[in-house]
């Protein structure tokens, strides 16, 4: 019995330790590349996304500045952040970003972000949406 218990305790400690750990997300290394690769075409200085909403992804300050309708990131709370909701597909199809509803697909305007990219954005917001 002691033999099995001695093996189980380190394994249990490892499992408990890992369950409390999550990857620390960096804006510069993890989040900004997603915006650069998938969003900047429309949400930059001259893009149609900026014209329609006032939302630019050029840099951290632009993202945190939100849209002409208000902030899109609530640091520490992805569920309350419009940015997370639109990229995660938790809104009406017409406002999901990048646009991937039928009309946008027909116009070859893009696909949804990968689950990994969505998780990175969610973790970044939940970790406080830091400029790191």
Task: Describe the model.
- The chain is mostly helical.
- The protein has one domain (25-126).
- It is built from 7 helices and no strands.
- The radius of gyration is 19 Å and the shape is globular.
- The model is unreliable at 11-19 (pLDDT under 50).
Characteristics of this structure?
132 residues, mainly alpha, globular
Total strand segments: 0
Radius of gyration: 19 Å
Count, helices:
7
| The number of domains | 1
Beta-strand residue fraction: under 5%
**What would you call the structural class?**
mainly alpha
Give the overall shape, derived from the CA principal axes: globular
Secondary structure blueprint with pairings:
Layout: H1 2-19, H2 27-38, H3 48-53, H4 60-65, H5 82-87, H6 102-106, H7 115-126
Summarize the structure.
With 132 residues, this protein is mostly helical.
């Amino acid at each position: 019995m002691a033999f099995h218990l001695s093996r189980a305790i380190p394994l249990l400690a490892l499992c408990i330790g890992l369950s409390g750990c999550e990857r620390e997300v960096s804006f510069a290394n993890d989040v900004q590349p997603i915006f650069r690769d998938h969003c900047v075409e429309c949400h930059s200085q001259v893009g149609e996304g900026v014209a329609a909403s006032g939302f630019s992804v050029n840099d951290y300050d632009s993202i945190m500045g939100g849209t002409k309708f208000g902030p899109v990131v609530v640091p520490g709370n992805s569920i309350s952040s419009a940015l997370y909701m639109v990229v995660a597909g938790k809104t009406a199809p017409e406002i999901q970003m990048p646009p991937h509803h039928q009309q946008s697909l027909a116009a070859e305007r893009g696909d949804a972000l990968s689950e990994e990219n969505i998780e990175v954005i969610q973790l970044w917001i939940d970790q406080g949406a830091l400029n790191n």
